[in-house]
Design brief:
The structure is a homodimer. Chain A is an alpha+beta fold. The first copy, chain A, is built from 5 helices and 10 strands; from the N terminus they run ββββαβββαβααββα. The structure holds a DNA duplex.
DNA sequence: TCCTGTTGGTGTCAAATATACACAATTATA
DNA sequence: TATAATTGTGTATATTTGACACCAACAGGA
């Protein structure tokens, strides 16, 4: 049973990268340089080569298009509707990742595609069915935050409890009680004080950092009811 | 940017079908009639045609190979490692479904492939990387049961609380307290008494049925801690 | 027919967890 | 130095979970 006898779907990978920036949730998008959808924004991605795994392809595309490397990818969903790409039948395996914004300079992509962060709440029109993929990724992110402490992966290395709570509230879309939030996070034993303080308007806030040795454990743990 | 210029991966769909039969969890497998892995058992599936969606392909293959139709499929994961199929580069999108055993006669497949139920706890050696896919599906099923009331989808139309609890216990791999289990299930308001009883050894047991109008609601709800 | 084995069905109390809620402490800035 | 803004803290109540033991109803065999 040969494999190349009749027309078959092509396969791409797309990677949704979220971060926390400017007090809101943002996503990394690239501006398309070629047709179709030339000049429109889209989720970074590209075709899977014959000799690379899906995850390798996702990491390669990400590096080529955005300069981003060394991120932890999680498979999101595979979108395969017939009409989703005007070039022909293309099935895309979507991945997503959470990264701290300061680690990434979107303009470092080696093929100089224009890449930039966009607010999740005010994204540009997107190519293909990428708006749908983005919506699905958002839903998954909310789900993930409800069940785990994943928000740390979005924040910078040190952060205050106020910032952490703000991130949870915006992503989950509901207000949380300050005292209950702090108690839950602190008793979960996944962050530690750095000893430093962040100053600004109002009383200075303690800075915390995520306990890296708790990553694996935390990823499986349920934090919010 | 043409789509057919260089070698690309092929795409298949595989469908893991679980049911509850003979007081255990079973999975539907088919015996391969052609190489590779001729004569070995495998998860039903096949190539995605150019003009059908992934889910359509999954339903079609399922009907062709097992006679099973009208099941609700959920996308599981996409497996795309380079060496997983000896015929060449094949990426497979795996789906899974929960069905009540009595609804299905595995031998009704139109191309007369041999299809049969196998215990999850004693499966035959499987072709390709299907053992891995099956293990992943099992994990997902357990996860699903922990978080929702999905076990109903496996049982026949009417069932006793004893049967329901037994299914949960075997799938989750732990014993549950009878009184607490009943309290939780009944207070969740997702099953109703039929009014009939099932007789047998010991005191007759009330029969219940799942409240179909609660399906959507229940799928999102968390039942076990 | 009655004894026995087997499975079905029920309530309570204690512990753990979640929720609601208000004010003093510390700084920047006007 | 007064004011505005933000951080940081404890307790009481309600809800949920977990542990636990006995009687009820039937089948089958003595």
């Amino acid at each position: 049973m040969p494999l190349e006898d009749y027309p078959r779907p092509s396969v791409t990978v797309d990677v949704i990268i979220f971060t926390w920036r400017n007090d809101e949730l943002e996503v990394l998008l690239i501006k398309r340089k070629y047709p179709p959808f030339e000049g429109m924004w889209s989720i970074p991605g590209g075709f899977v080569e014959i000799d690379e795994s899906l995850e390798s392809a996702a990491l390669r595309e990400l590096k080529e298009e955005t300069g981003v490397r060394d991120v932890y990818l999680e498979q999101l969903y595979t979108f395969g509707d017939v009409g989703r790409d005007p070039r022909g039948r293309v099935i895309t395996v979507a991945y997503f990742a959470l990264v701290p914004a300061p680690l990434i300079d979107p303009r470092a992509g080696s093929d100089a595609a224009q890449a930039d962060w966009w607010s999740i709440y005010d994204p540009p029109p997107l190519a293909f069915d990428h708006a749908r993929i983005l919506a699905y990724a958002m839903q998954r992110l909310r789900y993930k935050l409800e069940y785990t402490a994943a928000a740390f992966e979005l924040l910078p290395e040190t952060f205050t409890l106020g910032e952490l709570q703000a991130a949870y509230e915006i992503i989950l879309g509901e207000e949380l009680d300050k005292r209950n939030f702090r108690r839950k996070i602190l008793s979960a034993d996944i962050i530690e004080e750095t000893g430093d303080y962040q100053t600004g308007e109002g009383r200075p806030a303690r800075l915390y950092h995520f306990r890296e040795d708790a990553v694996a454990e935390v990823k499986a743990r349920r934090l919010f009811p």
